[in-house]
Amino acid sequence: MMSELDKLEFVGREEHLNRIISHVQEPNLHVVLVEGRGGIGKTWLLHALKSRLNQVQIGTSEIIDCDMPVFKDAEDLCTQIAKQLYDSTYKEWLLRLRQLREDENRLSQTAYEQERRQLEKFLVDEINRKSRQQRLVFLIDTVEKLGQAGLREEVWEHLGNLCHQLDNAVLIFAGRPSIARQILEKSFKKDELTYFELNEFTHEDVQTYILCKEEQLHFTLGQELVKKIILLSGGSPIMIEFGVEYAYREVIPDWLESEDIETIPSRLEKTGGFEAEMVRHITQLRTSMDRLTLLLSHIYPLDSSDIANLLEISPEDAQKLFLDAQSYFFIKPVMGGYQISLHDIVRDLVEKYVWTDIDPDEEWRKRDSRIAAKYFEKKDYELGPQKRILEVQRHSDNSHQVANIEFLIEEVKQLREFNTNRWLWNALYANPTRGFETWYEVTDRIRRQAKKFSFVKQLVAIAKEFEKDLNPDQKLKLIIFESRIVHALKDKSTTVHEVRKLEGILSEQSSNSSHKADIYNVLGMLNTKLHLYDEALKYQQECLSLVQGNNLSSIPGVANLVGYLYRQLNNFQEAEKYYKLGWDAAMEVDTPDKGLTQVMASIQNNLGFLYGQQKDYVKAEQCFKAAIDMWSSVESDREIANAEIASATISVDNGNYVKAKQLLEQALSRCDNEENDNQILCRAYFELGLNQWFSAEVVNEAVWDVTQVEWDLNLLSLAQDALEKSLKLAEKYGLEEELPRILHQAASVYWHLGFQKCDRTLQDQALKLNDRSYQTSLEYNDTRYAIDSLVGKAEFDYYAKAYEHISDYARELSDRFQSYENIHPLYFGRILRIEGDVAFQQANYDFAFSKYAQGIPKIFQHGGFGPYSIQHELNLLQKKIERLPIELSKTLIQQLKSQWKDHKALKEWCDQQMFLTRIRATKQPSSHA
Questions:
Q1: What SS3 state is found at 303?
Q2: Containing H/E element for 51?
Q3: Cα 788 to chain center, whole Å?
Q4: For residue 4, what are the contacts with CB-CB under 8 A and spacing of at least 6?
């Protein structure tokens, strides 16, 4: 029997070998790329390099083979590189990589790329640290398989960037021709990269090669057989190895031994050629090896335990077969020798020539996959408790062992993900339609509970392999599932594309399609994400009408979404109607599960917010308490925090700043993990900033113009700090929907700080923040904050006495957003009031009061909040009236009253002002110049 060492002893390619060793020792070289077709000897070359480089005191890695299902991206390769360094490096790398992958959908693209660069720098630093002792070479094989299709260019750019940063290390990449050469040659100078192409041996090379193999194996092929192999192999090392291996093991095909060299070519023409016959002959090996080879061509890599279960043999026989198999040239050890796989070219050839002959209907392979799916499913469920046991140890152990337990948990996670991949792939292969239902159940659970979106995307790629074999209903289900992933991600352009795709599918669906409600629901969610609330409402109402007919359990959740959309459109009556519709439907269920409890809590929370906006604070408080109690029953701290923030928002609007602060501090105390709680933290800090700003106003009854209002600078600084925290979280975690309001309110705080301190720098920052809010609002269809920030521009100009552009802002508001006047009356009222204030400063009182007459009822309709409350506005207007001559005051009050005849409370206010003016007439003249 050939030993592993004998099997891998290098024969041929001596010139290439020497040249590569010479190049590797050049100080500027970072990359060697070796290309050649499958079976040309790239792997053998790497094994020879490993041996020779060690002899010249150059540290070499184990050969890292990318022909593995786990190699999905550049980081997977880097994981194997980290494994070749220090134990501590590998452990830290693995934990940091997990964090990066979990952050992929949490962080903004900018923050994610920054974290990715930091992780890359960590690995580069560790490689450079180790390479200070001696030059290092990393040997990487089958690189054409690295990365998922469509992303390989990005993978190679990433690897090129990593290699540029190495001080005393070289990466040798070997693989079939791919885009690697084109990208690497663009990135590196000539002395930094060298390229080799391996071609077939000449006849003389083949003869030398066979002589060397005969010496190595201590046996003779015979002159005739050598001639035949030289002629038929075409100079391909792997075909030569087939001939030598079969002869050595005395299982050589009869025709190769007995037929004349002249007649063999015509015989091979009928059967597919020499390589087809060589590979087909694998099935003539002894039974267990034959079966293992076929299994490995379909399911790989495998360890001895996998072999025992999949071939249904004893563990002892499996271990023996596992070891014996490694003596065959076409079997290679992988994953540090713990598993074996077929050489990729042999796997391709078996697929092409063997399976088509012996399993044309794929029933054999499907049977293997059925066994494999059950086996890997069992392993998957066994790995779950292992992880939980380690997690218990982590929480109970406060010693230095915690870091090691974290690493062990991560290894179990990786193993389980790899195992889940193999389970679902085999389930789909064995029976695509039945396997898809398993795939959907498992993948949807991971999406909803674990939210591992990078892993979910890997599982989606598996399902896409079998898409053509799914039935129409399942194909649609897969499309809808992909759309739900898009909703969870942060890319606006992808969301827009997904909406168009689903709208196209919707137009093609028959009226009785069972998935129509799902499509409407996802379209509603996607449009909500884009702030297109009218469109979203249309789709969610369609969804609701369908589920009311055939899926009663879905009514509460969908009705809640419809109510939310009506609230966004300021139609409070309809919002309440649908919230209550959802509540009543949920009340029909006698024993609510956790999911329904959370929906009911959400409805109560939304009702609380709605009643608060309508100034019914008692009912609002009652609903918020019910929501918190319901979420407490299912131990959902995160949702309780959301309810506390919603309640605090209403308290801020109500001017109850002390209570709001307490609620927000409670919400913040529930968040112990920034990565998981980033959105809650972002919102809590925003509301805290708003609360500090509104409570910072120094009450002064003598103030008659907004520019005279003074602020507690300490509280304003606290507001600035909270809003900056909120902004950092939004930017770091890509919370784009939060940006418009944070930017605008931060701009207001910066402005007031700058104005009161006479600090032009702060005021300039305020202008930039507000302009960014306006642009971001337009980009993300956030109409409310587009309007608010446009009014903010007018407000800041008024403070700065730059009156000339204020009418332009008012015109832009009217031209661009007129249809939203009834939804956002506060802001339309405020810009009219600002125009009135400009006219008042210019002593154009008739025009000023005509603007007040239009603007104040709009502010009254909304009620306002903080410094923009209706009471605040009326107090300032009263002080303005007091500055005017008595008769002018009476005339202007009368004009206001006549225009406010439909507003009882405002008419009464005018009567109060008229009486106060009469009293004033008895005391003193106006002081206004």
A1: coil
A2: helix 42-55
A3: 31
A4: 326, 327, 333
Q: Is 507 exposed, middle or buried (0-12, 13-18, 19+ CB in 10 A)?
A: exposed
CA 293 to chain centre: 39
Backbone angles phi, psi at 60, to 5 degrees: -120, 150
Reported as half-sphere exposure (CB side, CA atoms, 13 A), residue 130 has a value of: 23
User: In the predicted model, what is the mean pLDDT of residues 497-520?
Assistant: 83
Please report, for residues 117, 125, 160, the alpha-carbon distance to residue 165 in angstroms, rounded to integers and kept in the order given: 12, 9, 9
**Alpha-carbon torsion angle 179, 181, 185, 189, nearest 10:** 150
Q: Which residues contact 808 (CB under 8 A, 6 or more apart)?
A: none
pLDDT at residue 156 tops 90: yes
In degrees and rounded to multiples of 5, residue 709 shows phi and psi of -65, 135
Q: Are 83 and 411 contacting, i.e. CB atoms less than 8 angstroms apart?
A: no
Angstrom distances, CA of residue 443 to CA of 227, 370, 384, 468, 494: 56, 19, 16, 19, 21
Contacting residues for 718 by C-beta, under 8 A, at least 6 apart: 692
To the nearest whole number, what is the mean pLDDT of the chain? 90
DSSP, collapsed to helix, strand or coil, labels residue 171 as strand
Within 10 angstroms of residue 356's Cβ, the number of other Cβ atoms is 13
pLDDT-based confidence at residue 395 (cuts at 50, 70, 90): low
Can you give the pLDDT at residue 366?
96
CA 303 vs. chain centroid, Å, equals 33
| Cα separation, 583 vs 580, whole angstroms | 5
Residues forming a β-bridge with 711: 697
Question: d(Cα 253, Cα 911) in Å, to the nearest integer?
Answer: 113
pLDDT digits 0-9 by tens, 851-905: 999 999 999 999 999 999 999 999 999 999 999 999 999 999 999 999 999 999 9
Whole-prediction pTM:
0.78
* Strand, coil or helix: 753: helix
Q: How far apart are the C-alpha atoms of 444 and 758, rounded to whole Å?
A: 56
The residue assigned the tokens 């290679």 is: 332
What one-letter code names the amino acid at 201? F
In whole angstroms, what is the distance from residue 145 CA to residue 127 CA? Answer: 24
Whole-angstrom Cα distance, residue 349 to residue 99?
Answer: 40
Letter string b/e over residues 130-165, b meaning 16 or more CB atoms within 10 A of that residue's CB: bbeeebbbbbbbbbbbbbeeeebeebbebbbebbee
Query: Where on the phi/psi map is residue 720: left (φ > 0), alpha (ψ -120 to 50), or beta?
Result: alpha
Q: Please list, in sequence order, all residues whose beta carbon lies within 8 angstroms of the beta carbon of residue 313, skipping any fewer than 6 positions away.
A: 288, 307, 321
Element counts in the chain: helices (H) and strands (E): 44, 10
Residues 6+ apart with CB under 8 A from 782: 531, 737, 740, 741, 776
Alpha carbons 420 and 912: distance in angstroms, whole number: 75
Of 66, 42, 33, 63, nearest in space to 236 by CA: 42
Are the beta carbons of 159 and 71 closer than 8 angstroms?
Answer: no
Rounded Cα distance between 198 and 176, Å, is 10
- pLDDT at position 770 over 90: yes
Q: Return d(Cα 277, Cα 349) in angstroms, integer.
A: 10
